[in-house]
Specification:
Layout: H1 5-25, H2 35-43, E1 47-48, E2 63-64, H3 66-72, E3 97-98, E4 103-108, E5 132-140, E6 145-149, E7 158-166, E8 169-176, E9 186-189, E10 197-204, E11 212-220, E12 229-230, E13 234-240, E14 264-272, E15 277-281, E16 290-296, E17 303-308, E18 318-321, E19 329-336, E20 344-352, E21 364-365, E22 370-375, E23 399-407, E24 412-416, E25 425-431, E26 438-443, E27 453-456, E28 464-471, E29 479-487
Length: 489
């Protein structure tokens, strides 16, 4: 096929124009046309071009305008004018690849060379020496400990090391030659700083084992006091303490049956209190004998709040602790009683509001249209509790006083003890606060038999009112039920 001279000239002009346009649009001169170039053109809009070779003046009209941006968009190197991904040589410390702290990366080191300045592997079986085809990576620590391995590699023999510092001044933190599967590598390193970047060098042992190397990185707490695990305030966590050690300065368990002593394979956790009380146990553990304690403070100056040896199922542990501060972090130490009970320990944490003591300062609660039952057999009447004005012998206290509060939903309420198992009660309703209560209504025998029943009006909707229920004498201690009915007057 033959083309006319005119057509050839036209095609040549079009090709030249396309080439010239592409070169023109490359404002930053990096060989790619992308958003960075378009941004620079847009920033200079409505200004004169610097000359006929100004790369921002795509249409050559002497002015930089939005038309130049439009002319460059079809010339973008990648769809959407995206910037080309940054590349890494990986075989140089100065240009490492990246691996997530809990992730893996695979690289073929067949064509890689080991830089003469790359640090030797201290764990090389023949003494400190470099590997072959060194590949470099970095990871950012998300925990204070990390474990790395090459166990999923296609090659058969590797070297692996982790470093702190910068290229040219690296400090080896851990090194492995054959601690993984076969002749592959596996190591763990502790004492990392969360958020800091660490370097990893992985290499083949010899040219015979060049090929595909997979580096796996797992970041995890070390489960000592300085780097504890975490357990949700209403959750559980399981750890195998077989390989864990008890630090010499870990606090002794005060509840150890032989007197304060450490356990074996101590495991540390923290939890953030969401309530003022928490109960913890090791009842779901696979091991058979544990110790458990909760502490306030910081490592090195911990104060034991509660301790349990055998209060759980069998020889396992269970405890509850009160007086916690919501939002504060508390430490938990769990350990095996002896080396014979090392293994999988599960710590379950349940945070719950404190149980009322049913005195005026910590009363129970009853819904405005509901009932509540409490056994007052072991309860005592505080000397500061107000006397019942309706006591048949004149104002006097009852026995085993029980306190509740209710929030008024209407301006009137009726209360009674008619469903109680005991036979003789006293009942009163108060406004105010403990220590300065004003009695609004009182009943001794207005209920069924010698039980109590009263109604009170003039309540303020939304206000909290106090209720004192008591037995008339020690002979009528037992289960008291207070029923509250709020109704319009």
């Amino acid at each position: 096929m033959q083309f006319g001279a005119g057509l050839v000239i036209a095609l040549a002009a079009i090709m030249a124009a396309g080439t010239s346009l592409a070169a023109t649009c490359d404002v930053d001169g990096d060989g790619d046309i992308d958003k960075l170039d378009l941004r620079e053109i847009s920033r200079a809009r409505n200004t004169p071009a610097s000359g006929p070779d100004d790369p921002r003046d795509a249409n050559g009209d002497g002015m930089i305008t939005p038309a130049d941006v439009k002319a460059c968009i079809p010339q973008c190197t990648l769809p959407g004018c995206e910037e080309p991904a940054a590349s890494s040589t990986i075989d140089a410390c100065q240009d490492p690849g990246a691996v997530d702290c809990n992730g893996s990366v695979t690289v073929d080191n067949t064509g890689f060379t080991t830089d003469p300045d790359d640090p030797a592997f201290s764990c090389h079986f023949a003494g400190p020496a470099q590997g072959v085809g060194s590949a470099w990576f970095t990871f950012v620590a998300t925990e204070t400990s990390a474990c790395l391995d090459t166990n999923d590699s296609a090659v058969s023999d590797t070297l692996l090391a982790v470093y702190d510092g910068t290229c040219g001044a690296l400090v080896e933190l851990a090194c492995s030659e054959d601690e993984g599967n076969g002749l592959l590598s596996e190591l763990c390193v502790e004492g990392l700083t969360v958020g800091e970047t660490y370097y990893v060098q992985v290499a083949s042992f010899s040219a015979a084992s060049l090929g595909s190397i997979t580096l796996n990185t797992t970041c995890q707490p070390s489960f000592d006091c300085a780097a504890p695990g975490a357990v949700d305030c209403n959750g559980s966590v399981t750890i195998d303490n077989t390989d864990l050690t008890t630090e010499p300065d870990d606090p002794a368990f005060s509840c150890h049956f032989a007197g304060p002593a450490q356990g074996v394979g101590s495991t540390w956790f923290t939890f953030v209190a969401t309530e003022t009380s928490a109960c913890l146990d090791t009842n779901d553990s696979a091991v058979s004998d544990t110790l458990l304690a909760v502490y306030d403070g910081t490592c090195g100056s911990l104060v034991e709040l509660a301790c349990s040896e055998d209060e759980g199922v069998g020889l396992l542990s269970e405890l509850c602790v009160d007086g916690l501060t919501v939002g504060e972090t508390y430490y938990v130490q769990a350990a095996s009683f002896s080396a014979a009970s090392l293994g999988s320990i599960t710590v379950t944490t349940t945070c719950l509001p404190p149980e009322p003591t049913f005195d005026c300062q910590e009363p129970g609660a009853v819904d405005c249209n509901g009932s509540v039952t409490v056994d007052n057999t072991a309860l005592t009447t505080d000397p500061g509790d107000p006397a019942f004005s309706c006591h048949f012998a004149g104002p006097a206290q009852g026995v085993g006083s029980t306190w509740f509060t209710f929030v008024a939903t209407e301006t009137s309420a009726c209360l009674d003890t008619n469903l109680s198992a005991v036979s003789d009660t006293l009942l009163a309703v108060y406004d105010g606060t403990c220590g300065s209560l004003v009695e609004l209504a009182c009943s001794e025998d207005e209920g069924v038999g010698l039980l109590s029943e009263l109604c009170v009006g003039g309540l303020t909707v939304g206000n909290t009112y106090y209720v004192q229920a008591a037995s008339f004498s020690a002979a009528s201690l037992g289960s008291i039920t207070v029923t509250t009915t709020c109704s319009p007057p």
